[in-house]
Structure to design on (550 residues):
């Protein structure tokens, strides 16, 4: 019991705190509408009636947690996954472009890092551009990428994946440059005494040295890829995906729909990061680097 | 084949730094013969490590000549003529002890069977038999350094260059490893160049002690040891041992005279 409390207690406390604050804020933000309705119907609202109303409105400013939970339940478990109203359907659309974009971003990031570490010219020229690329707001560049790719006949999954890639390659480049440079001067000298080729030095020394740096970068990268996929669905008038759900919800003032899409996206991000974390633990254990 | 392994003539190396040139080595002459155990001793900045690195082609001299097995250091390095033991063991944490020792053999293209054979042989030589499946962090510092010596012995280099290999270890472990190193040297007939800053270590191990001094880095004395090849640890209390140690100390002091 005590051990369980030590493990989950702190997290549970914070979760309870968040829910309490959430319910309080729902009352504060939605009370105006409750009083307005009552005034128009010419009835007097007691405090408890007001509170109940703020937690059950159709289009509240801030939906209460149980309203979001019910909406998520109704649009996941209660809907066929091929339905246009199923969050699983929309989640899968977003997830597929996230995963493709993340894979592209990871490969691009690693290739750029290898180039930067091995080539002086690339070291001096590429890194500033990599950093500059991240200073441009993704929201500004996303529609242009979609339009340009459409013009050359590329549409569907790939343009969205490219926006995911655009966000996710950056942490991978930064982490991998550091990781591939992790071997110290002595280890590099040692390879030289064995007359090892650059190729051998890379595969036997640099690559394994970089693994502990790769995974934290991939965790940030996969979360960024999801953000990229959602952002890519916003300005393009997409009708499918979590981003499209967010957009449709905001068109029609469906706040409960917005929040349920939002929480689904957050859960998806957490699941992705945890999956990468799991692969990290297995890999490090296999390499003998986990104690 | 001649018996000369290392021959340096007027060897100089100057590093250009922002504070002006640093003479790491200046006009160094030295010959190391096959089967010698040569120690380089001196205060930091005397160029003893730099000299070793020049032999290994890790630094390029700026003047004079040096040959390793009659070749330039670069040719010797490409022919894998020497094994180099660094101050830190530098074992790869993701490889087992066996895997670490196998690494140079893999790089040099030995067959799988030959690799396994040699790993077993050198592990036995440094008394680490049975540890090949262990990871480096499961071993003590002294054992790790023995594994790194095993790695340097695993391929057919008859020259062993050692840069303060026991510098980071405590006195007791160090004594033990010194004793083992002498055994190993007698068994394998290698030529050893050994950098140290410990006088007893240098005298105990060497057939030849090269005393160096800094600014500019140069050789101030070369002492041929008169100690027998068979050396129990308590030889360090004999008058003969103390005589040699005294001469090394004098050499070091003379080199410091101009400070």
């Amino acid at each position: 019991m005590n051990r369980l409390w030590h493990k989950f207690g702190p997290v549970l406390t914070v979760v309870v705190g968040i829910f309490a604050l959430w319910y309080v804020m729902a009352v504060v933000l939605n009370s105006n509408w409750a009083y307005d309705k009552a005034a128009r119907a010419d009835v007097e609202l007691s405090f408890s009636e007001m509170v109940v109303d703020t937690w059950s409105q159709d289009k509240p400013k801030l939906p209460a947690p149980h309203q979001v939970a019910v909406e998520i339940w109704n649009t996941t478990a209660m809907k066929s996954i091929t339905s246009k109203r199923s969050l699983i359907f929309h989640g899968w659309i977003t997830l597929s472009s996230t995963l493709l974009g993340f894979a592209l971003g990871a490969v691009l990031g690693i290739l750029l890092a290898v180039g930067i570490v091995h080539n002086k010219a690339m070291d001096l020229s590429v890194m500033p551009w990599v950093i500059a690329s991240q200073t441009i707001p993704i929201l500004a560049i996303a529609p242009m990428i979609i339009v340009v790719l459409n013009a050359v006949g590329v549409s569907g999954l790939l343009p969205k994946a490219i926006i995911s890639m655009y966000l996710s390659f950056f942490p991978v480049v930064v982490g991998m440059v550091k990781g591939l440079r992790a071997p110290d001067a002595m280890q590099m000298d040692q390879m030289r005494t064995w007359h090892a080729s650059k190729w051998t030095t890379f595969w036997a020394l640099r690559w394994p040295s970089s693994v502990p740096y790769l995974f934290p970068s991939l965790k940030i990268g996969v979360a960024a890829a999801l953000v990229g996929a959602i952002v890519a669905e916003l300005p393009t008038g997409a009708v499918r995906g979590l981003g499209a759900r967010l957009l449709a919800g905001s068109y029609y003032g469906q706040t409960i729909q917005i929040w349920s899409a939002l929480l689904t996206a957050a859960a998806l991000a957490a699941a992705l990061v945890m999956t990468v974390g799991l692969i990290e633990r297995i890999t490090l254990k296999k390499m003998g680097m986990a104690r | 084949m001649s018996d000369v392994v290392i021959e340096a003539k007027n060897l100089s190396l100057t590093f250009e730094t922002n504070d002006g040139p640093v003479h790491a080595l200046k006009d160094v002459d030295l010959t190391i013969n096959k089967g010698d155990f040569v120690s380089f001793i001196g205060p930091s900045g005397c160029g003893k490590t730099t000299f070793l690195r020049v032999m290994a082609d890790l630094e390029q001299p700026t003047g004079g000549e040096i040959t390793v097995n009659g070749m330039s250091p670069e040719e010797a390095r490409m022919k894998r003529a020497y094994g180099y033991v660094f101050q830190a063991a530098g074992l790869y944490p993701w490889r087992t002890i066996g895997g670490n020792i196998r690494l140079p053999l893999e790089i040099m293209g030995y067959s799988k069977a030959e690799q396994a054979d040699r790993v077993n042989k050198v592990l036995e030589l440094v008394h680490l038999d049975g540890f090949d499946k262990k990871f480096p962090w499961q071993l003590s510092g002294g054992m790790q350094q023995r594994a790194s010596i095993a790695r340097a012995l695993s391929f057919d280099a008859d020259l062993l260059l050692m840069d303060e290999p026991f510098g980071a270890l405590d006195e007791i472990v160090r004594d033990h490893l010194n004793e083992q190193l002498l055994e190993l040297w007698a068994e394998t007939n290698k030529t050893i160049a050994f950098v140290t800053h410990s006088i007893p270590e240098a005298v105990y191990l060497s057939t030849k002690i090269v005393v160096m001094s800094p600014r500019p880095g140069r050789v101030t004395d070369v002492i041929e040891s008169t100690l027998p090849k068979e050396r129990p640890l308590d030889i360090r209390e004999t008058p003969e041992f103390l005589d040699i140690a005294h001469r090394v100390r004098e050499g070091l002091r003379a080199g410091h005279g101009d400070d």
Notes: The first helix of chain B runs from residue 48 to 55. Residues 1-81+163-169+191-259 of chain B form a domain with the Rossmann fold fold (CATH 3.40.50.300). Chain B has a mean pLDDT of 91.
